[in-house]
Amino acid sequence: MAFGGLPHGADEDTPVFVISVAAQLSGLHAQTLRSYDRMGLVSPGRTAGGGRRYSMRDIALLREVQRLSQEAGVNLAGIKHIIELENQVEALRNRVAELTEELAAAYAAAEHAAAAVHASYRKDLVPIRHETALVVWKPKRTGKQ
């Protein structure tokens, strides 16, 4: 087992805990976890046989559901809405980060292209003198008037 009680190579999103362990870690009853799963508040991973497997992120979410319910007095429908909004905010943050990276790459590519164009300028161009002259033009008069 790795530090924090997770198997080697597992992270906070790896579903590793059976429902009884998840219930103990979250301080909730296993039946409450089943109920939250049916309501869509927490969606644990599933084994091939259909057994629930909870990740550390799921455990943290279960604790947050309990906190919102008991300390803040939010009902389960409200908690579900809060979770959905938090997920949307996280998805938008990730998209903004992706777009920021794409924009930075586009700027870098544009700067590189501009530098390449400038580097391709011929160095053997001859400078010209800039003179200003005023020429008055008078049309020739023909014999016909």
TrEMBL record:
It comes from the Bacteria. Residues 16-85 form the HTH merR-type domain. Keywords: Coiled coil, DNA-binding. SUPFAM superfamilies: Putative DNA-binding domain (SSF46955). SMART domains: HTH_MERR (SM00422). Residues 82-109 form a coiled coil. InterPro entries: DNA-bd_dom_put_sf, MerR-type_HTH_dom, MerR_fam. NCBIfam families: HeatShock_HspR (NF047375). PANTHER family: HTH-TYPE TRANSCRIPTIONAL REGULATOR YFMP, REDOX-CYCLING DRUG-SENSING TRANSCRIPTIONAL ACTIVATOR SOXR. This is Helix-turn-helix transcriptional regulator. It comes from Amycolatopsis cynarae. The lineage of its organism: Bacteria, Bacillati, Actinomycetota, Actinomycetes, Pseudonocardiales.
